[in-house]
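> Could you send the Carbohydrate ABC transporter permease prediction when you get a chance?

Sure thing. Input:
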Amino acid sequence: MKLFKRLARMEKMDLVITILVTILAICSLLPLFWLITNSLKPSTDIYKMPPDILPKTMYLDNYKELFNNQPALRWTFNSFFVSFVTTTLSVIFSALAAYAFAKLHFKGKNILFALFIGSLMIPKETFIVPLFKLVVAFDWVDTYQALIIPNLATCFGVFMLKSFFESIPNSIRESAKLDGASEWTIFWKLMLPIAKPGIGALFILNFVTFWNDYLWQLLMARSKEMNTLTVGVAGLMQEINPNMGLKVAGAAVAAMPMILIFIMFQKYFTKGIAAGAVKE
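Output:
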């Protein structure tokens, strides 16, 4: 009887937790729902009080004006190109460094890794001025390399992937060594596929971070054609006598790629976060 009572209490607790998580999920999705529905309304309906929960008609002129009167397609391409290239290269570099810290033995490894971890506590804004001067000295302002190269080295990625490589048994690497495999072959064909969940999770986190990297993109993109979607939409927000419908539509377009990326890589993200929390 005690066992059945305990199971009943656990079922009730699970039900309460499920209801609570569902309510929190709905609350977190409300801003996104409000953003999308307002993008399908004229500006007058957005300011209407009390507001309409759903638009009375599908008003698509906000999106037409955004893509016809503003270089929104170029902004979208810039954002996707910069975010994808930066994320891909940063994940590769992070995986290489994390593998070295996890599996290789070299002098000063622990001290160097401690410096990596310590740098995570330094805000990016503290070194943005010397970094800006360095980019100006290279004459990279208003170019893609200025938006991409300074963001390639991410200590967080090294810290995150190191735990994945450490969870892989050393016997796999030793067996490959006995079979004559090179260090690069072991990394590329053995270690990297095993760490795929962690790499997928890091890819999502980095992509969202670089997509939303407003400050650095604002400093580097001087011309309107080099603006990313985040900077371009923010520019619309600063106009006098603004068209609120246009701004909301721009914000909705900027949010959609991140949502799609998360949906596409959701499986790897959940596996990566769960696996990273357990170290064998």
